[in-house]
Specification:
It is built from nine helices and 18 strands. By secondary structure, the protein is α+β, with helices and mostly antiparallel strands. The longest helix has 18 residues. The relative contact order is 0.12.
C-alpha cells in the first residue's frame, strides 16, 4: 500500500476484521517493523526512530488509565516522565482539560468517570505532548451507541482545535463517514479505494467497497449499444461509467435509497424503470423504512439468447424516508414497481459457467 496523511487531515482506515488495520497502525507507531517498505514522517525516514521519539499520540480501545490517579494526574504523567518542567506541565494539563471539557471532573479517579469521559482523558493524555499525528485504534468500540455518536463528534472538534492530523482505525461504517476527511478502504492487506466519504459511498471503485461501505444491491447485466441491459430492460447509461466494449458483462450497483418504489410504472419519477416486485418484509428503523422486495417478473427472453434468465424470487433491499412511507403505506404481499434514481456500472468478469445476465 501507498498513501499519505496530510497536515490536519483525519484519515479513517475502514475494513473487516483481520484485513490488517491494527497491524498498519502498529507499524506507523513503531510498535512493529514492516517486512519491506518505508514510513516517512514529514518526508524523513521514520523506521529508525524509536516509538517514543516519533511524536505520535496513540489511543487504544482500552484506555489503560492509571486507576489510582485522578484525571489531571493521568494527563500530566506522560509529560512528567519526559522531564517537562512543572510549570509547563500545569499549563498543558489545564489546556487539555478545557479542550476535552473535563475541568469539573479533573480530580475524579477513572472509576468515577463514565466510559466517554475516560476516553476523553486518554485523548487528552495523548494530545498533551503535542504529537504531530494522532493514531486511534477503534477507540469507541466499548462505548454504548449514544456515547459513541457524541464522542466521535467531540473528538473531531478536539482534533480541529488541536491542529493535528489523525489516523482512525475502525470497522464501523457510520463512524468512518462522520469522522473522515478521507476514507481508506482496506481488504486483505490491500487498499481497495481512497477518497472522500462522498466519493467512496457514491462512487465505489469495486463491488467490495460498494457492499462493505453501506448496503448495496448488485445485479449482473450486459452493456450493449451504449445502454445497460439488466433484467430484460434497457436502461439509459449513468452519468459516469467505466470504459466498456459492446456486449461486455457488467455489474449494476445501486444503494437501497436509489430505488423508487410505487404502484404504477407510468407514475414513477425515477429516471430508470427497472422491474415489478412483491413486498416481502417491512421494517421501521427510525429515520427510514427498510423493505425487502422480491422480483416477481419471469423473463423468457432479453436482448440476446445468452441473456435469457429467470429472475423470480431475487431479493432487493429498498429504503424510504418516513414521509414517503406515510404517503404511500406498503404491506407484505403488495405488488409494486421499481425504478432507479441513479446507479453505478462496474465491469464484470464472469466465470466460464456464468451468463452475463445472471443476478446476484
Amino acid at each position: 500500500m501507498d498513501f499519505e496523511i496530510a497536515s490536519r487531515e483525519i484519515l479513517v482506515v475502514l475494513g473487516p476484521s483481520g484485513c490488517g488495520k491494527t497491524t498498519l497502525l502498529r507499524i506507523l507507531a513503531g510498535l512493529e517493523e514492516p517486512d519491506a517498505g518505508e514510513v516517512l514522517l514529514e518526508g524523513r525516514p521514520a523506521l529508525r526512530i524509536p516509538p517514543q521519539d516519533r511524536r505520535f499520540g496513540v489511543v487504544f480501545q482500552d484506555q489503560a488509565l492509571f486507576e489510582k490517579m485522578s484525571a489531571e494526574r493521568n494527563i500530566a504523567f506522560g509529560l512528567e516522565v519526559r522531564g517537562v518542567p512543572a510549570g509547563r506541565v500545569r499549563e498543558r494539563v489545564e489546556r487539555m482539560l478545557k479542550l476535552v471539557r473535563l475541568v469539573p471532573h479533573r480530580r475524579k479517579l477513572p472509576a468515577q468517570l463514565s466510559g466517554g469521559q475516560r476516553q476523553r482523558v486518554a485523548l487528552a493524555r495523548a494530545l498533551a505532548y503535542e504529537p504531530s499525528v494522532m493514531l486511534f485504534d477503534e477507540p469507541f468500540t466499548a462505548l454504548d451507541a449514544r456515547t459513541r455518536v457524541e464522542l466521535r463528534r467531540e473528538v473531531r472538534r478536539i482534533l480541529r482545535d488541536a491542529d493535528v492530523a489523525a489516523l482512525f482505525i475502525t470497522h464501523d461504517q457510520e463512524e468512518a463517514l462522520e469522522l473522515a476527511d478521507r476514507i481508506l478502504v482496506l481488504n486483505g492487506g490491500q487498499v481497495e479505494q481512497v477518497g472522500t466519504p462522498y466519493d467512496v459511498y457514491n462512487r465505489p471503485g469495486n463491488e467490495f467497497v460498494a457492499t462493505f461501505l453501506g448496503a448495496a444491491n448488485v445485479l449482473l447485466g450486459r452493456w450493449r449499444r451504449d445502454r445497460t441491459w439488466v433484467l430484460g430492460t434497457a436502461l439509459d447509461p449513468p452519468e459516469e461509467r467505466p470504459a466498456l466494449v459492446d456486449g461486455q458483462p457488467i455489474k449494476v450497483v445501486f444503494r437501497p435509497e436509489d430505488v423508487e418504489i410505487g404502484f404504477r410504472r407510468d407514475l414513477l419519477a425515477a429516471r430508470h424503470p427497472l422491474s415489478e416486485a412483491v413486498v416481502e418484509s417491512v421494517s421501521y428503523v427510525g429515520r427510514t423504512e427498510r423493505l425487502t422486495v422480491r422480483l416477481a417478473a419471469r423473463l423468457v427472453g432479453a436482448s440476446s439468447p445468452e441473456d435469457v434468465v429467470d429472475i423470480g424470487g431475487l431479493p432487493l433491499v429498498v429504503t424510504r424516508t418516513k414521509w414517503e412511507a406515510e404517503e404511500a403505506p406498503l404491506e407484505v404481499g403488495d405488488a409494486v414497481v421499481l425504478g432507479l434514481r441513479s446507479y453505478r456500472l462496474l465491469p464484470h468478469f464472469p466465470l466460464g459457467t456464468q451468463s452475463g445476465a445472471e443476478t446476484v
